[in-house]
Amino acid sequence: MNLRDTLKINSAGVLEIGGAAATELVKSFGTPLYVLDEDYIRKVCRAFVKTMNEEYGDGNVCFASKALSCMAMYKLIGDEGLKADVVSGGEMYTALRAGFKGADMYFHGNNKLPKEIELAVSNGVRIIVVDNLMELPIIDSIAKKYSVLQKVLVRVNPGVEAHTHHFVQTARADSKFGCSIALGEADIVIDAVKEYSNLDYHGLHCHIGSQIFDKTAYIIAIDKMTSFIKALEDRGIITNELNLGGGFGIYYTEEDPKYTVDDYSEYVATVARGVKSMIETKQIRKPVLTIEPGRAIVGEAGITLYSAGMIRDIKDIKKYVAIDGGMFDNPRYALYNSKYSAVIANRANAPADEIVTIAGKCCESGDIISKNVKLAKVEEGDIIAVFSTGAYNYSMSSNYNRNLVPPVVLVKDGKADYIVRPQSYEDLVRHDVIPARLK
Question: Of the candidates 220, 331, 307, 282, which has an alpha carbon nearest to the alpha carbon of residue 25?
């Protein structure tokens, strides 16, 4: 358990999140419940922005929306001076509805739909990040329709293998993302951009993966990217912006470093200093530097509260604690074999002397939240708090087995407000249709 500064255990032995007792949150909102700590989110945002300004100057911090997309989140990051990285028409529309300006968005995706590109261009999205050759004529045609000179970054694959789960490594040679520098694909796409009258080559993007703790991977990527920028400059092509993506790791279990906000500042400083050093050494023009943290901003700010249900103790084999949530609110174990820490929130001081597997309620053997978790002896009705669920939980939720996606509350100074309201069973059938021929 990592009790960072906005988490504590009160005198009654109850976990408090942003000043709100877990027991009171459950009384007010029920379970399952996603809880987000506003002060922690703002604190991390400010650290990223401050360090970027101090260490580099001309830079951008973009929130990677895929980590957590809802209108309140866009309002919050906008308040803190961040831009937004969106990867679908839905994320873009959500940001626009929240009052976020297109001029502060970057639109990503390996298979952008024409209607999504039109939504971006018609709303003045700052940058479209080109992933492949085939999308160039589509973007150009739509930009021409709106009389826009659309700035684009070209996503390249620098061939850096970050030491993380295979599914979240995004710069391997066989990745579905980006244009390979080594194979010459990046040069081909950049040259092609120059042939379209309504496209403006603005710079490069790369993203080497997620949940990365080794800063060396970023230094290697910076070296490869700045060398490529130098090669482009030697051909007369100027790169005005270098976007290095995100991927900074967070604490999930005791296997991970317990990072503080200062550690994230140091990550940004390392990246900024690395870019400055290499552009000086290679004598290239200083580009705008952009980074795209997502998990690092919201991951540890989130905790999911569940109610314990059935307990199945298979003698000498395994003990299951079933909860009222599951893979419909957190599919990350099923996808990545992810691990989480947990505590009995209503008895948070109780010694964690049992090893249990937290199981979901879906009709799937793989519906697990976390295996081999240390908990105090669980009783039916206990509140189980699972930590570090702010990123890729709500955003990856579903109605599998026709379960309801839990609501999301934002907590500050002990007060909690919905930022995503709870679903109802009526919501599940709202879009269902029985054709006349079946009646």
Answer: 307
Identify whether the C-beta of residue 143 lies closer than 8 Å to the C-beta of residue 164.
Answer: no
d(C-alpha 31, C-alpha 303), whole Å? 12
Read off the pTM: 0.94
DSSP 303-337: EEEEEEEEEEEETTTEEEEEES--TTT--HHHHH-
- Give φ, ψ of 217 to 5 degrees: -60, -40
Q: What is the mean pLDDT of residues 324-341?
A: 96
At the top level of CATH, the class of 7-30+303-429 is mainly beta
In the block, which residue shows the tokens 């922005």? 49
- SS3 label, residue 381: coil
**What is the average pLDDT score of the chain?**
95
Separation of alpha carbons 8 and 16, rounded Å: 5
Can you tell me the distance from the alpha carbon of 65 to that of 330, in angstroms, rounded to the nearest whole number?
17
> What's the token pair of residue 305?
């509260």
Q: What is the C-alpha separation between 377 and 351, in angstroms, rounded?
A: 9
Question: What gap in Å lies between CA 281 and CA 291, rounded to an integer?
Answer: 22
Tell me the backbone φ, ψ of residue 268, rounded to 5 degrees: -60, -45
Q: 357 pLDDT exceeds 80?
A: yes
Q: How many angstroms separate the CA atoms of 270 and 251, rounded?
A: 20
Region 38-298: CATH code: 3.20.20.10
| Dihedrals phi, psi of 73, to nearest 5 degrees | -65, -40
pLDDT band at 177 (very low <50, low <70, confident <90, very high): confident
> Among candidates 126, 181, 175, which has minimal Cα distance to 149?
126
| Residues acting as catalytic residues | 363
Instruction: Provide the residue ranges of all domains of the chain, joining segments of one domain with +.
Output: 7-30+303-429, 38-298
Contact yes or no for 342/384 (Cβ under 8 A): yes
Q: Which two tokens stand for residue 1?
A: 């358990």
* DSSP three-state, residue 245: coil
For residue 347, give the DSSP letter.
G
Q: From CA 28, how far away is CA 22, in angstroms rounded?
A: 10
Torsion angle defined by CA atoms of residues 135, 140, 141 and 145, in that order, rounded to the nearest 10 degrees: 140
Backbone dihedral angles phi then psi of residue 197, each to the nearest 5 degrees: -70, -20
Q: Cα separation of 80 and 74, whole Å?
A: 10
DSSP 38-69: HHHHHHHHHHHHHHHHHHTSSEEEEEEGGG--
Helix-, strand-, coil-residue percentages of the chain, each rounded to 5: 35, 25, 40
Q: Is the peptide bond before 32 cis (omega within 30 degrees of 0)?
A: yes
